Amino acid sequence: MGDESVRGGNGDDGRRGAFGLHAHIESAFVFETWTRNGRDAYLVAAGALAGAAFLARTDQALFALVVGVAIVMRGDDTPGVRVRRAVRFVGPALGLAAPWLVWNLARFGTIWQDSGRVLMFREQALAESAGNGWWPDLSANASKGLFDYLLRLGGFESPALAVALAAFGFGLFFAVRMKRKPDGGVPATYLLFASGIWIFYILIFRQQKFWYFPPVTAAMALLLARFATYVDTALEDRPYRGAGSGALVLFIALGLSSHLPGVLKTGFHSWQRVYYDAALDLKENRLDGVAADARLGAFNAGILRAFSGRDVTNLDGVVNPRIMSAMRQKNFGAYLRDAKIDVVVDHQKMIAMYGLWASPDYARGFELVRRYETPPFAGDVLALRVLPEAVTP
Questions:
Q1: How many structural domains is the chain composed of?
Q2: What secondary structure letter does DSSP report for 295?
Q3: Which pLDDT belongs to residue 19?
Q4: Does 204 share its domain with 132?
Q5: Alpha carbons 293 and 285: distance in angstroms, whole number
Q6: pLDDT band (50, 70, 90) for residue 10
Q7: Does 164 share its domain with 185?
């Protein structure tokens, strides 16, 4: 892959994520329609939408797999009918995905993305360097996902409050089932898909990012709506039925509103504003000693690329296969010079972390241009000049 192909960043993640979410939810809706009316034309449409979701985000392939298995395992048809129906679903999905897969195979010799390989390699190496076994790493990621990501849908991050709400929900569930079950439900295929996405990133990539989990958030929203139907059913024929439903809405609204001032002030990720400020400094040439044609490198390249108006070379290996080679050979610092990177802009901790795959004098190969004060949990963003060779102490 030539150098031109590694410039830029991941600035279109928002568009891809939103489109992938929309496409796979539409596919799930169309598939559920098929389960009710049995018209196979819906399978074709659901498959095409699943293929579109895959082109937006390749992890959405799990959705097509779950639905395909569900069709094959459906017990009210003969095996031959089930297989033909699975083909009607999978065929359009593959038809949309095949040109992209074939192009990757012809161009790069593989359909496996650099991002997957480098992230697995990196997280495995970090876990080994920290001396963590697989179970502590897995359990830490799982608890982080449960209490830091999934529960944010309702705005409350307290485990105690979440457990209390879950206990109330289970109690209400069993109480209502003794009377009658509310109409509707959350498709089991979608819950299995969302759970699979969460487990996949814990087990394979050993990390969790918000942009990995739109399906999980959507599943949580569906479960929340389902919970609301149980509240409504449990309180039917009661004079305070409306008050009960209103209390649920108020409870969630209070949780979300408690985070709203901070979100309006700094965004969901406060460090993103820092990258935006750095991008504007680069655009307006406000960094001393950084020429207008200086070559930039960043591990988090999206915001810098989108707002600086400059080409930014990706350094975390997600769209740059040369990084994996440099990491394996432990010459990441030498790679920066070979690639003629003039300035690196990123979190201090991220820049330092890649010293694990560099020579011992890695840290002496930079000169500070500017430090951007950043929230403590993220570490300051630094603009560092890459020196022609490491400075001898």
A1: 3
A2: P
A3: 86
A4: yes
A5: 10
A6: very low
A7: yes
